[in-house]
């Protein structure tokens, strides 16, 4: 369960640096933050409170500007890439294996029919948040609960659209 935040400014600060790109309207942030805590933060609850966890997560995000990393390895929004290429390029750039999440966007017009959309690039850290680690091959998120599918694999010739 997510601890309630009494000050709207705290949500606004989180939302400005870690937005929920999948949902609309914006007031659904409470569900988004609960999802992030349950699936990513709760394993460290013996070390960090929820506010401490989110502050650490944002600090780690700011340390590794993933959009800059993607630009440096010439991966740009609006293009289609082989998932194996995305995975190996990001792994080479950051020195650790990321976790890619893709899905077929049902009930939406797709720019490339039959091609998955890259939904998320997760970078994994140890429980303390002090060391980047390879993301586990087996998914740590229960996608069915949130009606998402993780169709990305670390190899093969499947393609994904980076929106």
UniProtKB/TrEMBL annotation:
<comment type="similarity">
    <text>Belongs to the RNase T2 family.</text>
</comment>
<dbReference type="GO" id="GO:0016787">
    <property type="term" value="F:hydrolase activity"/>
</dbReference>
<dbReference type="GO" id="GO:0004519">
    <property type="term" value="F:endonuclease activity"/>
</dbReference>
<protein>
    <recommendedName>
        <fullName>S-RNase</fullName>
    </recommendedName>
</protein>
<dbReference type="InterPro" id="IPR036430">
    <property type="entry name" value="RNase_T2-like_sf"/>
</dbReference>
<keyword id="KW-0540">Nuclease</keyword>
<dbReference type="GO" id="GO:0016829">
    <property type="term" value="F:lyase activity"/>
</dbReference>
<dbReference type="InterPro" id="IPR001568">
    <property type="entry name" value="RNase_T2-like"/>
</dbReference>
<keyword id="KW-0255">Endonuclease</keyword>
<dbReference type="Pfam" id="PF00445">
    <property type="entry name" value="Ribonuclease_T2"/>
</dbReference>
<keyword id="KW-0456">Lyase</keyword>
<keyword id="KW-0378">Hydrolase</keyword>
